[in-house]
Amino acid sequence: MTFLKSTTVALFTLASASSAFAQDVTLRFQHFVSPKSANPTYFMQPWADKIEADSNGRIKVELYPFMQLGGKAPNQFDLIRDGAVDGGWVIPGYQPGRFPEAEALELPFMTTKVGEQASVAAWKFTQKHLMDDFKDIHLIAAHMHGPGLVHKKGPAIEKVEDFKGLKLRGPSRPATLLLDKMGATPVGMPVPAFPEALSKGVVDGGVITWEMSPSLKLNELTDSHTDVSGDKALYNLYFIWAMNKDRYNSLPDDLKAVIDANSGEFASAWAGRAHDQGDVVGKQVMIDDGNQIGVVSEEETARMMALGEEVTAEWITEITKKGLDGAALVADAKAFVAESQ
């Protein structure tokens, strides 16, 4: 009897241990920037820590910067969809034309310069217009960054004519359309390629945020950083934080609930706020290194906005020919932005 009891206890303990082990989950999330940049520092890592804490240690989220798990930044959506990674950070605009409705949020002077506000708008817009596009993944957050500005070699931009002849990196199709409209030669490229392109003279500069500037060494590779006047951003970029759908569905309900509680508008606003925090730090680094900080006058900003309106009008015409209601998409984007202020 003692032997049987001991055997029964041992088998029960082993079964319990196996069951507990089966409930423990490690999720591998990938992104394409420095772990010291704003989103990984103020959103991704705190989010991962909160997931672990809220699950009482049953979920561990591992973060891999610089695409360490393989693939290229433009293919991140497919890597997540196909299960090559459990989750990660995606810029849909890195695949021009694939997610056309998302471009409405990226049109010139669409968003405010507050990333948190823009991100709340992005989440609401996503829920209304983009969930079909993202049906093959599990969406956690949709967000924007803070103000996008011009970083370049040489003096700061002062007027529209200063763009003429400049080769400038752009992160998305709407951004490159605006650069082209202002007389620059736009060069589309993902952020990891930007520093090398600058150092080799492939581009004269580009548009990106304050917060990314230190990790890209823009204090060394460029001389000036130019924002526009007013409360609207020259351009913005749309991001998603997402998970492989099958991996999410494989979780027990209580662990799905942990992910769900850290998703949606809450997580989107958090991600946008991370960029706002990073912008303060990044701008100060550029100032401390003695780089020129420029702000385009209100009069010249108005000229740029007029060119931006032309880009938007042309975008509406183009997107409508593809069977989408371009005017409605723009109207909804503007309404959600206004509502989030």
From TrEMBL:
InterPro entries: DctP_fam, TRAP_DctP_sf. Its main location: periplasm. GO terms for biological process: transmembrane transport. Residues 1-22 form the signal peptide. Coiled coil: none annotated. The keyword Electron transport does not apply. The keyword Signal applies. It is found in: Periplasm. This is TRAP-type C4-dicarboxylate transport system substrate-binding protein. It comes from Litoreibacter ponti. The lineage of its organism: Bacteria, Pseudomonadati, Pseudomonadota, Alphaproteobacteria, Rhodobacterales.
